[in-house]
Amino acid sequence: MTNGALLELVKVSTHYVSSRGARVVRAVDAVSLSVDAGETLGIVGESGSGKSTLALTIMRLLPPAAHIVSGQMLLDGEDLLQKSPAEMRHIRGKRIAMILQDPMASLNPLFTVGNQVAEPIRVHEDATRANAWRRARELLRAVRIPSPEERVLQYPHEMSGGMRQRIVGAIGISCEPQLLIADEPTTSLDLTIQAQYLHLLRELQRAHGLALIFITHNLGIVAKMCDTIAVMYAGRIIEYGPVRDIFRSPAHPYTQALLNSIPRLGDPGQRLAAIDGQPPDPANPPAGCAFAPRCMRALARCHIEAPPESIPGDGRTARCWLATPDLSRVAHLPHNPAEAGVLS
Amino acid sequence: MNMRATAIALPSRIAGFRLGDFPIFPALILGGILFVAIFADWLSPHDPQLGSLRLRFRPPVFQAGGSWEHVLGTDHLGRDVLSRLIYGARVSVVVGFTAVVVAGVLGTVLGIVSGYLGRWVDQVIMRITDTWLALPALTFAIFLAAIVGPSEMNIVIILGAVYWTRYARVVRSEVLSMKEREFVRLAIVAGCSKWTIMRRHILPNVLNSAIVLGTLMLGVVVVAEASLSFLGVGVPPPKPAWGLMLSDGKKGLMVGYWWLTVLPGLCIMLMVLSANLLGDWLRDKLDPQLRQL
Amino acid sequence: MRRFVTKRLGYAVLSLFLLSLTIFLLVRVTGDPAALMAEPGASAEQLAAIRKNLGLDQPLWIQYGSFMANFLTGDLGHSFYYNAPVLDLYAARLPYSLLLAAVAMAFSLLIGIPSGILAAVRVGTMWDGAGKVFALLGLSMPSFWIGLVMILFFSVYLGWLPSSGAGTPLHVIMPAFALGWYFAAAHMRLTRSSMLDVLGSEYVKLARLKGLPESLVVAKHAFKNALIPVITLAGINLVIMINVAVVVETVFAWPGIGRLLYEGISFRDFPLVQGIVLLGGSMIVVVNLLVDILYAVVDPRIRLEA
Predict the structure, then answer these.
(1) With b meaning 16 or more CB within 10 Å and e meaning fewer, what string describes C67-89?
(2) What is the pLDDT of residues C97-141, one digit of tens each?
(3) CA–CA separation, A11 and B183 (whole Å)
(4) Going from the N-terminus, what domains does chain A have, and what CATH number goes with each?
(5) Exposure of B68 by Cβ count < 10 A (0-12 exposed, 13-18 middle, 19+ buried)?
(6) Do residue B131 and residue C15 have CB atoms under 8 angstroms apart?
(7) Distance (Å) from the C-alpha of residue A139 to the closest C-alpha of chain C?
(8) Which of A224-233, A313-322, C78-87, C292-301 has the lowest mean pLDDT?
(9) Mind listing the pLDDT tens digit for each residue in A61-73?
(10) Residue A342: predicted pLDDT
């Protein structure tokens, strides 16, 4: 992987274990990725694909039933998995910050907005109350909230959804982190507000040199905002690489299907292409490639053996037998798994 | 490569006094109390109502002055404590279970009727329920006992009359949500009469909640009966009731005759504790949404 | 706001009406009211006189009318035993019951809330287990038994605390403890589950993500929010406490309303009993009304519900 990256994950796996040890869910399975300063990585996937667990893994704030079982997570070369809880606490909010999806739920209804924005500043930078609140007002201005002096004394329920999400954003950048993880920040916002918010995030990124990890299920946003994209399915990254290249020529059938399912204007009468079937039961994944049961181009081999990571192009990876060089030259590929012959 | 999930075995916990899930000790205790209540005549060493003044205030066997003749001592009239405790179990069991059943039946029926028939029937029943609930249970029970006079039968009726509202409320809200469901609508379309629907379709489904509530109410009712007996408006003497024993026991308290108060109260506590534990377990198994009770 | 108050007021009035009607009917309907109202051992002439006095020969609704008229003008009957109006007796004893309930409530909150928080923060550990045991015991032990056992220990064996009466602050300790124990367990349970809910909420998650120390997360973000339902329950329980105190007051000879009720039953002083029940029920209705209004004043969202 790239050297000098700000954040680098190498084969990180997070498993949920039920209390009696009977069920193991591989929420995150051997994930590798990297983000440079100033770069925006988009993580795309259906619900249940493990994106949020991945974010919480990076922050090391998983529920008690979840364990990071293997891998390395390097922030500026330091392995986060070796850090003590106290050290991790200093990293959270200060070097890596996170924005959650629902701003109404993420803000404590009993405390003023100013209090909640000033809080991390007081804790991480030992600022005085006066200084922290001054910074809070500046931050509100930076996220384009009008009349910050008044707003700072208001409670979350007195603000609109879009404003609340900006507050959460202000909290995120309050201690000038190196990396900001945004977990579906625009999902609960109106469409008109979404665009403004994304614009704001872009500005903040440019102004502070932030690395941004953007978790979403919306490919349109990825196209607009991200430099690199990682597609997750059933806990694994099945495609990874520069956004332009992947959008132009996706290597994995799942990515292709996702891109196909975006309705296009100006094509009347086109049927919406959905992907048949459901994601696999996380506690009981199928043998072989997790996507094979739904894949239009699955080979017999796909149902038996999970594909390794292959490199279909510069700076790209994909987990698919079809992307593996020896197979891509085979002319006839069966569409229907039932028709497939023996292992080639 | 085999991608099947590999189970990681963690050591199983034997939590407290449960084996698997079923609370064994509480069940044994409650069963024991039931057993004692039924077979009191055979188990009791003495007549609980006969006492000899010569033998009053004897301590239990393990204290100086005690004897095996009266293992747990005697009370202020020389009556054997153990025998009274055994027969007291009968009273608690009979009154407790019967009152719970009476309240349960009354409350469930009224709850179903109120919830299903709606409109003015519902309003009337709900207003009565609210009024009932405005009166604290114990005060109300005392009031009723003052009017009708205490007797075992009356206590059962009184307790039933006081506590039915708890059932009615819960059952009614369940019925309200049930009314919208498919199987009820099908029954209506099929032409079943209101009463048939209530009896055949709704009743079996609310039974779960009613039973869980019943086990939880058992503890409450037993304490209520004990309280009433303690105050002198419960089961009338000379019949032994644990609450009554506590009231009598007060007489010897200031001189340190501890067994007259500690032992009956202990019995009450064990019965209530077991009922509560069983009720909790039953609720977790059958109907977790009753958690707020 | 005014509509809300009027509506609630209407409900309260309706409840009072139904309450008095219920009590009235219960007395009239079950047996001979005159015998109840008469002093024990009254002669036949006295009974006849009472019947005339109560107007028992008149139609029911007229009786109810005069009953209500009396109620509204503060005449709640006359106690034989004390030879005084019931209302006066009630008013004299009420402060003692309020004092006992206040101390018991304070105790139950001081024990219940911290132990609930501890159990939630250390969920699944020995602390939580201990908390569960405490809660179970508290909910299963009858308050009067606790009182009696305490007297045994602290008065008889140790001689530290007085066993009856209400002279000094020492007198209130044991009754308050006996009364409050059950509620401490109930409050502990609710605090624990409320705290667990709050600890799993999104804003607590964000607080942790901000890198705040866990102590700050619990003490600031979780605590206040978790407390809301507990305070609500405590308010309801306060009124219940006053009424349930009858047995504890009897055990400790505490001169409150409960003991008055006990005396009424013991001495077959029915007017006293009836008066206390009426007043007790009315008090609950009035308190509920005030609490509703208070909530509406504090939380603007509630006013819209009306």
Answers:
(1) beeebeeeebbbbbebeebbeeb
(2) 889 999 999 999 999 999 999 888 888 788 888 888 888 888 888
(3) 52
(4) 7-232 (3.40.50.300), 287-344 (no CATH)
(5) exposed
(6) yes
(7) 16
(8) C292-301
(9) 988 888 888 899 9
(10) 37
The average pLDDT across B20-43 equals 83
More confident residue, A273 or A12: A12
Residue C217 is encoded by which pair of tokens? 């997360």
**Chain C residue with the nearest C-alpha to that of A106:** C203
Distance CA B18, CA A278 (A): 39
Q: Which residue in C194, C94, C192, C108 sits closest to C143, CA to CA?
A: C108
How many angstroms separate the CA of residue C224 from the nearest CA in chain A? 8
Chain A nearest CA to C236, separation (Å): 23
The more confidently predicted of residues A56 and B207 is: A56
**Region for B241 from its dihedrals, namely left if φ exceeds 0, alpha if ψ lies in -120 to 50, beta otherwise:** beta
Q: Report DSSP state, residue C52.
A: H
pLDDT of residue C204: 92
Cβ B8–A24 below 8 Å, yes or no?
yes
- As given in the structure block, the two tokens for residue C292 are 């509703």
Please give, rounded to a whole number of angstroms, the shortest distance from the CA of C122 to a CA of chain A. Answer: 12
> Is the CB of residue B95 less than 8 Å from the CB of residue B155?
yes
Interface residues of B toward C, Cβ cutoff 8 Å, are: 16, 127-128, 130-132, 134-136, 138-140, 142-148, 219, 223, 226-227, 230-233, 246, 249-250, 253-256, 258, 261-262, 265, 268-269, 272-273, 276-277, 291
List chain B residues with CB under 8 Å of A23: 5, 7
Residues 6+ apart with CB under 8 A from A186: A165, A193, A194, A197, A198, A216, A218, A221
Contact (CB, 8 A) for A216 and A277: no
Q: How far apart are CA B252 and CA B258, in angstroms?
A: 8
Search chain B and give the residue with CA nearest C194. B292
Quick one: CA dihedral C66, C71, C72, C75, positive or negative?
positive
Chains touching B by CB (3 or more pairs below 8 Å): A, C
Q: Dihedral, CA atoms, A20, A21, A24, A25, nearest 10 degrees?
A: 30
Closest residue of B to A285, CA-based?
A: B4
**Can you give the pLDDT at residue C114?**
92
Q: Is the pLDDT of residue A54 over 90?
A: yes
The residue that leads in pLDDT, B285 or A99, is A99
- Judged against a pLDDT cut of 90, whether residue A58 lies above it is answered with yes
* Residue among A20, A287, A305 whose CB faces B4 most closely: A287
Residues from chain B that touch A69, judged by Cβ atoms under 8 A, are none
**Cross-chain residue pair C137–B262, CB shorter than 8 Å:** no
User: What proportion of chain A, given as a percentage, has pLDDT over 90?
Assistant: 23
Q: Which residues pair with C78 in a beta bridge?
A: C85
Answer yes or no: is the ipTM higher than 0.85: no
pTM assigned to the model: 0.79
Res B197 pLDDT > 80: no
Tell me: pLDDT of C50 over 50.
yes
Q: For C200, which residue in chain A has the nearest alpha carbon?
A: A63
Q: Does the distance separating the beta carbons of A120 and C211 come in below 8 Å?
A: yes
Q: Are C214 and A118 in contact (CB under 8 A)?
A: no
A23: contact with B, CB 8 A cutoff = yes
Of the residues A88, A91, A110, the best mutation for testing chain C's interface (the one with the most C CB atoms within 10 Å of its CB) is A110
Q: Comparing C-alpha atoms, which of C96, C243, C95, C257 is closest to residue C166?
A: C96
Minimum-distance CB partner of A20 among B1, B6, B10: B10
Mean pLDDT, chain B, rounded, equals 79
Q: Token pair of C270, please?
A: 């029915």
Task: Pick the closest to residue B164 from B111, B116, B98 (CA basis).
Answer: B111
> Are B253 and C273 an interchain contact pair (Cβ–Cβ within 8 Å)?
no
